[in-house]
Amino acid sequence: CLVSSCCSFVLQFQHFAMSTLQDRPPVGGYGTIAYKRNLPNRGPSGIALFVGGIAVFGLGMYQVNRGRKQRRRIEQERINNRIALKPFLEAESDRQYIVETAKELEAEAIIMRDNKGWTVGERVFNSDRFVPKWTPWSLSK
Fold first, then answer.
1. Where is 73: in which H helix or E strand?
2. Do 101 and 133 meet the contact criterion of CB atoms below 8 Å apart?
3. How many other C-beta atoms lie within 10 A of the C-beta of residue 38?
4. pLDDT in tens, the chain (141 residues)
C-alpha cells in the first residue's frame, strides 16, 4: 500500500542521514584567506589631481586675460593712429577729388565744345548743397 511505502522511504532516509557523517573543518579551523588587494599606490592622490587641475586652469585664465589686454591695447593704438592720420587722409582724398574733377571738366570741355548752349561744370542738381561725385576711392572710407 501507499502509506507503508512512504513510511519505509522515510525510515530508510533517516537511517542514511544518521549513518553518514557530514564533512567538518579541520581541528583549529582553516587558515585565513588573503582576500585584500595588495596593489602599490600609483600616481598622485585625488586631491593632488584636483589642486593641479585648478592650478592649470588658473594659469590658463591668466594667459587668456593677458592676451585680451594686449589685443585691447593694440586695437586702441590702431584707433589712435587712425584718429591722428584722419586729417592727412582727408586732405589726400580732397586733393585726389580736385585732380579727378579737373580732369573730368577738361574732358567735358573737349567732348561738348561743339554744343553752343552747354556750360562746362554746370550743376546737374537743383540745389546749392555739395554732393560729391561717386568715385571708387570713396567706398574705402
1. helix 46-111
2. yes
3. 5
4. 555 555 565 555 555 555 556 677 788 888 888 888 877 778 888 999 999 999 999 999 999 999 999 999 999 999 999 999 999 988 998 898 889 889 989 999 999 889 888 888 887 777 788 777 766 655 555
The helix (H) or strand (E) run that includes residue 18 is: helix 2-19
Instruction: Count CA atoms closer than 13 A to 89's CA, side-chain side.
Output: 10
Residues 6 or more apart whose CB falls under 8 angstroms from that of 97 comprise 132, 135
The b/e string for 84-118 (b: 16+ C-beta within 10 A; e otherwise) is eeeeeeeeebeeeeeeeeeeeeeeeeeeeeeeeee
Phi/psi of residue 84, nearest 5 degrees: -70, -35
Element containing residue 22 per DSSP (H, E): none
Take residue 54 and report the three cell numbers written for it. 585648478
Q: Is the pTM of this model over 0.70?
A: no
Q: Which residue carries 585584500 as its cell?
A: 36
Is there a contact between 63 and 98 (Cβ–Cβ < 8 Å)? no
All 3 cell numbers of residue 82? 587712425
